[in-house]
Amino acid sequence: MSGQNPVTSTKTWANRWTFLLAAAGSAIGLGNIWKFPYIAGQYGGGAFVMLYLICIAVMGIPLLMAETAIGRHTRHSPLNAIRQLTNELGASKLWSMIGWMGMLAGFLILSFYSVIAGWSLSYAWQIVSGGFTGMTTDQVGDAFGGLVSSADRQIFWHSAFMILTFAITARGIHKGLEKGLQVMMPALFALLLIMLGYSMLETGQFMRGFEFMFSVDFSKVTGEAVTAALGQAFFTLSLGMCALMAYGAYMPANNSIPRTALNVAALDTLMAIVSGLIVFPIVFAYGLEPSAGPGLLFVSLTAAFVHMPMGEIFGFLFFVLVAIAALSSAISLVEPALAWLLERTPLSRTVATIILCAAIWFVGLGTVFAFSGDFTFTLFGKNFFDLLDYFTSNILLPLGGLLISIFAGWVIKRSTMMNELGLSVGMFNLWRAMIRVVVPVCVLVVVITTIF
Ligand code: TRP
Question: What pLDDT, in 10s, does the model give residues 131-158?
Fold first, then answer.
């Protein structure tokens, strides 16, 4: 088994910003812009936002550091990183389960992620081609219903997104994405700021949206909300499935892991909060429901674009940039499984990527048909999309995070982690107490209450 990771032929990234860019590119995506507002809306706003911020600080940041440190220490793809460490330490081979679960989680998440990213492409196209011009807010809502009830249209855009994912993944991150991301991520941020300006100045409901997000109604702090907040924290930081372990493998030795982890978490959280501050004032201004579910972002923003001067252009740019943010996340979702296929089979990178993307595309049809109503299968009152989302975010990722934290805290040598993290003794001990005790206990409590 070679330590060469297929992402790039060089062993480390040339530039110290690249890791930050790649990790932020993985973290910032549909989870921030699409999922965060609608889940916050469903769980009553402030209570959820508070729980989410606690989960990011208490569990997210320590785990982000642990995953990156394991990757950088071994400089292997996730499954081999864990195998090498268990061999070195004489620990159980069962730990490689972490790698397997990560591949499965990435596979399943991307299958529905691509469908939603497809909606974004579809909206970009419809807005710029004048498809929404002159519509009332009700008609904008109906138009969303029209998209999700059409299997054909969703399959078209889901396929388009998977082809883009394939094209970039097959070329490798270096050639494909690195350059692009350096322009796109700031562009996305600039556009979010423009939309934030709109929400602040034009909706007349900014304070109401702000209050909805930040005033905590403690009666809404339920077990279910805690589970959702934990799942969202893992999802949004790309944690629990070794994606950052894979990226950490290329991080230059002189980069500070704690500082980078803090930056990634801060940028990611900022993006989510800004998205919420954009969406909720618009929701209130146009008489929409915060708890509308997965269509929330699409309906609310489109309602605003219809009323904005140059809304066609802004709307087009916005949804294209959301799709690009999704693309940089999608790549990190394929990477662990792809790395494994390349190590284990004689397939070329192109062929392995085609097989993997085709399989993910196929599973994604389940989500398309669940939305369109052609696939009526439900379990515990959840359709295929809800089940996948629930199983991955609320069970697989936390379980992966739990195992990673135990592995990093109790199995790997203290000195190894100390070297990688480069913290002062006091800060290191704090991190270690978090990763050994606080993270596992919190995750375990939530996972157990989720399952039973
Ligand atoms: N974090 C991304 C988002 O918020 C999604 C994502 C990319 C992800 N890679 C991941 C989620 C790995 C979980 C695990 O959109």
Answer: 998 899 999 999 999 999 999 999 999 9
Task: Confirm or reject: Cβ of 236 under 6 Å from ligand 1.
Answer: yes
In a domain, 291, yes or no: yes
- Residue 323, strand partner residues: none
In angstroms, what is the span from residue 425 Cα to ligand 1's centroid? 32
Place of tokens 């609310």: 300
Give, for ligand 1, the residue of 327, 329, 394, 399 to mutate: max count of ligand atoms closer than 8 Å to Cβ: 329
Condensed to tens digits (0 to 9), the pLDDT of residues 198-228 reads 999 988 999 999 999 999 999 999 888 999 9
Is 26 near ligand 1, meaning CB less than 6 Å away?
yes
Cα 332 to ligand 1 centre (Å): 7
- Cα–ligand 1 centroid distance for 329 (angstroms): 6
Domain count, the chain: 1
Say if 83 falls within a structural domain.
Answer: yes
Cβ(363)–Cβ(108) under 8 Å?
Answer: yes
Q: What is the mean pLDDT of residues 249-275?
A: 92
φ and ψ at 408, to 5 degrees?
A: -70, -30
Say what the alpha-carbon torsion angle 252, 256, 257, 260 is, to the nearest 10 degrees: -100
243 CB under 6 A from ligand 1? yes
Residue 188, token pair as written in the block: 């996305």
Does 353 map to a domain? Answer: yes
Pick from 233, 196, 245: nearest CA to 56: 233
Longest dimension (CA), the chain: 67
- Model's pTM, two decimal places? 0.92
Measured in Å, residue 239 CA sits from the centre of ligand 1 at 7
Q: Could you report the per-residue pLDDT of 58-94, keeping only the tens digit for each?
A: 999 999 999 999 999 988 888 888 888 999 898 888 9
Q: What separation in Å is there between the alpha carbon of 390 and the centre of ligand 1?
A: 14
In a domain, 372, yes or no: yes
Give yes or no for residue 112 CB within 6 A of ligand 1: no
Residue numbers of the domain that contains 203: 16-451
List the CATH number of the domain containing 247: 1.10.4160
